Amino acid sequence: MDLKVSAHKFWQKMQALLRTARIKFSLTKLMHRLGFKKLDIYIIKKFLTTYIFLILIVITIAIIFDYNEKIDKITSSHATWSQIIFDYYANFVPYFSNLFSPLFVFIAVIFFTTKLSGNSEIIAMKAAGMSFNRILRPYMFSATLIAVVTFLLGAYVIPRGNVERVNFENHYIKNRDITAIDNIQMQVDTGVIAYISHFDNQRKSGYGFSLDKFVGKKLVEHLTAQTIQYDTLAEKRYSWTLRMYQSRILKGNKEQISTGEKIDTVIMMEPQDFFYIKNQQETMTVPELRTFVEKQTMRGAAGVSMFEVELHKRFAMPFAAFILTLIGLTLSVEKRKNGMGTSIGIGVALSFSYILFQTISASFAINAGWPPMLSAWIPNIIFMGIAFYLYKKTPQ
Fold this sequence. Notes:
Structural class: alpha+beta
Number of strands: 6
Oligomer: single chain
Order of helices and strands: HHHHHHEEEEEEHHHH
C-alpha cells in the first residue's frame, strides 16, 4: 500500500514537472515568435526572477514584523491558527505584494541591471551595436507582463480575498464590529428618500421606517411602517417586508390612505448600504466599485471620493511598471565607480517617493476636494516627467 502511495505521489510530481516544462517551452517558443533573441530572453528571465525573489524576501519580512506588532491583539482575541493563516495572512501576502509591486519592479531593474553593468555585459551589448532603445525592448516586455498581471489581480482577484482580511482585522485586531446603526437617511432612487430610525444588521431588521417620494419639490407619496425586514431568502435583490404600514398618496388636494399588517415590496437599498467598513473600498472589484460610486453619487452620500480614488488607482498602478522600469534602466545602465550601492540608494528613494506621492495625493482627494482621477494619476504624471528627462540624458 505504501509503495502504491509513493508511486502515485511520484507520478503526480513528474506530471507537474512535465507541465512546468511544457509551459516554459511554450513561453520560450512564444518569445521567439515575437522576435526575441536569446539575449532578450536572458534579460526577461533575469528581470522576472529578481522581481519574484524580491517579493518573497520583502513579504516574508513584512509578515514577521506584522505578526510581532499584532501578536498581543491576535492572541487576546482568541482567533484560531487556521483563521490567522488562511483568513488573514493568506490574503495579506497577495494584497501587499500587489500594492508594492512598483517598488519591487524598480528595485529589481536597478539590482540586476547594475550587476550586468558591473560585469561589463551592457558594454558588450553596446559594442555589438545594440542601442539603448534595443536594450529597453525586453525590459518593457517584462513590465507589460507584470502590469497585466497586477491589473487583473488588483481588479478582480485580490478584492475577494480582502473581504476575509478586512473582516479579520476589524473583528480580531481593531474590534470595530458594527451591528446596529441609528437615523439612516438616504436617497434610494431619483426623488425617493428613505429613513430608518434604527437598524440591526444581525437580524436584518429595523423600526421607524418612512419612504417619501417627490416629483420636483412636491411630495406625492408618503409610506410609513413600524418595522422593516430584509428578505435574505428572496430570489430578487432589494426585497423588503413592511409590517403595520400606512401609505398616503397625495393627488392635489386629495389623499388616498391605505393601511395593512404586512406588505412585501422592492426598495432600492440593501443592509450593506447602511454600514461603512474601514477599508471597504479594498474589498470591491472594479465593476463593484463603479456600481457603488454611481449609486452613492445618485444618493448624494458623503465619502464617495475615497472609492473614486480607489477605482482610478486600479488603472493607474499598472502603468507605474513601465515608468519605473524606464527610470530604473536609465539610472543603472551606465557603469558607475561607486558600484551598485549608489544606484540602489537612488532607486529606493525614488520608489518610496512614488508611494509617498500616491498617499498624499489620495489624501488631498478625500479631504481637500481634489478631483479623484487627478489624484490617482498625478504620481504617474510627475514620474513620467522624471523618466523622460533621464531618458533624454542617457546615451543612446
